[in-house]
Design goal:
single chain; alpha/beta; Leucine-rich repeat, LRR (right-handed beta-alpha superhelix); two-stranded parallel sheet; 1 helix
């Protein structure tokens, strides 16, 4: 085979692969309207589709391969146990539109070392970050209601505003 033929075959394969991989990712998300109900994939890094307004209860429960998640600005709520048991998740940035983080939302995310919580969050549920043993400090708004046991013992909480 000459170079042109090899490049043409390669380009053809890449052209077929990209739409197939995009279609696969869209089937990884089970939706109920604009609520992400369940993630069925196994990717290490996931981007939640734009337009999702809430991450449902247990949507990513025990996704142990998940290391990173990108949440769109359209999300306003993170449900109970949404990321519970995601033991490989290392950091997360919660977008400014989120107002509530449910009970046990990140429970057991033992590799979580960094989290950004915007001042828009008014409620952090009971045990929301329990078991996040690698988390050492967090900054939250003084206006945020923090549920009992939201953070593991020893986490330094700094208040903004």
């Amino acid at each position: 085979m000459n170079r042109t033929t090899i490049l043409t075959v390669l380009l053809f394969c890449v052209t077929l692969y990209i739409p197939l991989s995009c279609a696969q990712q869209s089937t990884d998300f089970q939706m109920d309207g604009t609520v992400l109900v369940k993630y069925h994939g196994s990717a290490a890094k996931v981007t939640i589709p734009k337009g999702v307004t809430a991450i449902g209860d247990g949507a990513f429960l025990f996704c142990i391969r998940l290391t990173g998640i990108t949440i769109p600005s359209s999300v306003t709520a993170i449900g109970e146990g949404a990321f519970g048991g995601c033991t490989s998740l290392t950091s997360i940035t919660i977008p400014a539109g989120v107002t509530a983080i449910g009970d046990w939302a990140f429970d057991g995310c033992k590799s979580l070392t960094s989290i950004t919580i915007p001042s828009s969050v008014t409620v952090i549920g009971y045990g929301a970050f329990e078991g996040c043993d690698s988390l050492t400090s967090v900054t939250v708004s003084r206006k945020t209601t923090i549920g009992a046991g939201a953070f593991p013992d020893g986490v330094q909480i700094t208040y903004s505003d």
